[in-house]
Amino acid sequence: MTAVTAGTTGTTGAPSVSDAAVAATQAAYEAVFDAAVAADERIEPRDWMPEAYRASLVRQIAQHAHSEIIGMQPEANWITRAPSLRRKAILMAKVQDEAGHGLYLYSAAETLGTSRDELLDKLHSGRQKYSSIFNYPTLTWADVGAIGWLVDGAAITNQVPLCRCSYGPYARAMVRVCKEESFHQRQGYEALLALSNGTEAQHAMAQDAVDRWWWPSLMMFGPPDDESTHTAQAMAWKIKRHTNDELRQRFVDIAVPQAEALGLTLPDPDLRWNEERGHHDFGPIDWTEFWDVLKGNGPCNDQRIGKRRQAHEDGAWVREAAAAYAEKHTGKHGEAQA
Amino acid sequence: MSTPDTHTTAALTGAALALGDDALVLSHRLGEWAGSAPVLEEEVALANIALDLLGQARVLLSLVGDEDELAYLREERSFRNVQLVEQPNGDFAHTIARQLYFSTYQRLLYGQLATGDGPFAGLAAKAVKEVAYHQDHAEHWTLRLGDGTPESHERMQQACDALWRYTGELFQPVEGLDVDHTAMETAWLESVTAVLGKATLTVPAGPRTGAWAAGAGRQGLHTEPFGRMIAEMQHLHRSHPGATW
């Protein structure tokens, strides 16, 4: 978007202008913004944007960043127990990528006038959320494969359309994130395939993991369309391109043949192909569980946020040291360290 | 490996195992940091170093036999890593001190091996680039912590002191490793002394070798935390004998 570049808001720096003039200017900015969105142009950090658009993006990008950071925990839980050196290397690389994704996303959020510190504060105090999926425990090695296949699969289904999101920095971060996520998803699928084709005990382990992760993965697409408070506005702004239910259906249609190829079943007796719709029908989601987990009552909510807070508190003296060192040495040598 | 007599082959195998176990065990310790680092950038950096080391371990162990059999089916007394790398992570300062001591050693070692024409020259040529980065990372953090706040200075000094006794073992000759251990030790002391000085830290006064620590890890004599570490590492693999993953 090129038409209007007016700092962060349309009204700053003009104290003497009359209210009417301000309102007229505001309307002009809005018209330019709306036209840019309608023409599928990208909104960039210096462009004028409605405050609600800015706030909505900060909320979504922050939640996305937090999910990457909290999402490291269930998988890191298995790094020290990975059953082969090859799997251990793959898992370490994946968890490292997640930290990297968190970094890109916090940077994208910062272009909207917030800071990583502020966002982390909100995560630690529970004022901002992360994906409900990471409140489930990883109980066996197969969970690592199931997360790769199902959780990353659901995340990709959600995120590929975000590569065309109206906000440029977010869309560009998503392009990079999606490439790496697709790689992880293939590795997860392959790990699960090895288990499914392995010993009887390994096959059972894989099936058990899929049984536990299937429904929580479907919940990752968010509440049904008629209960989703943000969807309509996000679609009008072209932040979102598809509704929750559309994406969930797309995911089910992709996952069913993959489960067959894996030789594993999905834990849904109502799952069947519907010739008329050209889609799979599937059973009802337990929305009580979904809202419960979202409210903080899932199996690992306290544990996840507790560990994140602990890491942050334990690291405070390290960050203070880096800041103190940078201050001393920036003064002396004019070079910023840390 | 070339076709020397069995004695030399055994020596090379022993050397590959020693270096491979060092890398494997330190990689595992660094992997324990995932999700707990003080800043996100360190999540990336520590995992990155852990991955480099795991890559080195896999190449070295594969020279000896099956990498997974060696990692997952040997007992504590058969591991040949130095005791330094098995030391628990402790706080961030302990992790950095361990990293400073070990990466300085590894850079000197691989530097020497890379210039020779021995069986490790190829591996060393690649690894020396990685460990140069590890050393740089450890040195920068030693400076920040040593010359940061009074608290970080104190913690860094304590960490350097606590791990000092495990550094003598790094320079015990390893059969099959064609390097000058004495020259390495001199260069190591010079390098570490310079970094600690720049970081306003005191070079620890305690002994660097002792009746127990000197060469003990290379003979399969380890410290108590190590057994617990490999119990965790090996549990799943051992629970499914013969399975592939």
Give, in spatial order, the strands making up the sheet with the most strands of chain A.
1-2
**Mean pLDDT of chain B, nearest integer?**
94
Which structural class matches the secondary elements of chain B?
mainly alpha
Q: Class by helix and strand content of chain A?
A: mainly alpha
Please bin the fraction of helical residues of chain A.
55-70%
Query: Any idea what the radius of gyration of chain A is?
Result: 22 Å
Characterize the quaternary organization of these chains: heterodimer
Percentage of residues in DSSP E strands of chain A: under 5%
The radius of gyration computed from the alpha-carbon positions of chain B, rounded to a whole number of angstroms, is 18 Å
Reading the helices and strands of chain A in chain order gives HHHHHHHHHHEEHHH
N-to-C terminal Cα separation of chain A, in Å?
A: 34 Å
Largest interface (CB within 8 Å) is between: A-B, 53 and 50 residues
* Secondary-structure element series of chain B: HHHHHHHHH
Return the average pLDDT of chain A rounded to an integer: 93
Blueprint (SSEs and pairs):
The complex is a heterodimer of chains A (338) and B (245).
Chain A: H1 19-38, H2 51-70, H3 72-76, H4 85-110, H5 116-124, H6 142-159, H7 168-196, H8 200-219, H9 231-236, H10 244-262, E1 272-274, E2 279-281, H11 287-297, H12 301-314, H13 316-333
Antiparallel strand pairs in A: 1-2
Helix pairs in contact in A: 2-4, 4-7, 6-7, 6-8, 6-10, 7-8
Chain B: H1 6-31, H2 40-64, H3 67-72, H4 83-86, H5 92-115, H6 121-146, H7 150-164, H8 181-198, H9 224-239
Helix pairs in contact in B: 1-2, 2-6, 5-6, 5-7, 5-8, 6-7
Walkthrough of the structure:
The complex is a heterodimer of chains A (338) and B (245). With 338 residues, chain A is mostly helical. Helices cover 64% and strands 2% of the residues of chain A. Chain A has 13 helices and two strands, in the order H-H-H-H-H-H-H-H-H-H-E-E-H-H-H. Chain A has helices spanning 19-38, 51-70, 72-76, 85-110, 116-124, 142-159, 168-196, 200-219, 231-236, 244-262, 287-297, 301-314, 316-333, and strands spanning 272-274, 279-281. In chain A, strands 1-2 form a two-stranded antiparallel sheet. The longest helix of chain A is centred in the middle third of the chain and has 29 residues, at 168-196. Chain A is globular and about 75 Å long. Chain A starts with 18 loop residues before the first helix and ends in a 5-residue tail after the last helix. The relative contact order of chain A is 0.10. By secondary structure, chain B is an all-alpha fold. In chain B, 65% of the residues lie in helices and 0% in strands. Chain B has helices spanning 6-31, 40-64, 67-72, 83-86, 92-115, 121-146, 150-164, 181-198, 224-239. In chain B, helix 1 runs antiparallel to helix 2 (40-64). The longest helix of chain B is centred in the N-terminal third of the chain and has 26 residues, at 6-31. The two termini of chain B are 28 Å apart. Chains A and B meet through helix 3, helix 4, helix 7, helix 12 and helix 13 of A and helix 1, helix 2, helix 3, helix 6 and helix 7 of B.
